[in-house]
Amino acid sequence: MAGIPEVVQDRVRGHYQVLGRLLAACPVSFGDEGFHAALPKTGGVYIVESEESLLPTPLYVGQAKDVRQRIYTNHLKGNKCASRLRAALIDSCLCKNEEQVSEFLAQECRVRCICIEDARERKLFEHFALAVLAPKLQS
């Protein structure tokens, strides 16, 4: 990477390592009985992916200061106003209404997450993951 400052190269390498850990994290299906308890109650970045094919399809990347609350309360149990993921599922026509969103998440989706406590680093990594993974429901 000629011409790119070493500090930038180091940051990119660091983000790739974190992305590798995120993609290697054990996925938890939204429909699992222990779903709520399996989510960390810390700050972090998460990927919601579809399980409908052999290779999981990234649908959504997000970050939160409390991953459990964001994913369980807003995305799984919330409504379109409380969750960009739910709104995107309806707006993209993958789901027709709130009930279908809940069913789709429970039957077809899983989440992977990684803890990142520092809010600035969490936001920077979220943007990096969005750029690299190009999730289906985010442009």
Task: Provide a descriptive summary of the structure in words.
The protein has a single domain (30-133), classed as 3-Layer(aba) Sandwich (GIY-YIG endonuclease). The chain is 48% helix and 17% strand. The protein is α+β, with helices and mostly antiparallel strands. The protein has a four-stranded antiparallel beta sheet. The model has no long low-confidence stretch (mean pLDDT 94). The two termini are 27 Å apart.
Descriptors:
139 residues; alpha+beta; GIY-YIG endonuclease; four-stranded antiparallel β-sheet; 6 helices; globular
Write a concise synopsis of the structure shown.
The chain has 139 residues and is an alpha+beta fold. Helices cover 48% and strands 17% of the residues.
Query: Could you tell me the mean pLDDT?
Result: 94
Strand order in the largest sheet: 1-4-2-3
Q: Which overall shape is indicated by the principal axes computed on the Cα atoms?
A: globular
Number of strands: 4
Strand percentage: 15-25%
| CA-CA gap between termini | 27 Å
What's the main sheet like? Answer: 4 strands, antiparallel
Element string (H = helix, E = strand):
HEHEEHHHEH
The helix/strand class is alpha+beta
Kindly report the name of the CATH homologous superfamily. Answer: GIY-YIG endonuclease
C-alpha-based Rg, rounded: 15 Å
Architecture per CATH nomenclature, i.e. the level-2 architecture: 3-Layer(aba) Sandwich
Name of the CATH class: Alpha Beta
Kindly state the percentage of residues in helix.
40-55%
CATH fold-level name: GIY-YIG endonuclease
Unreliable stretches: none
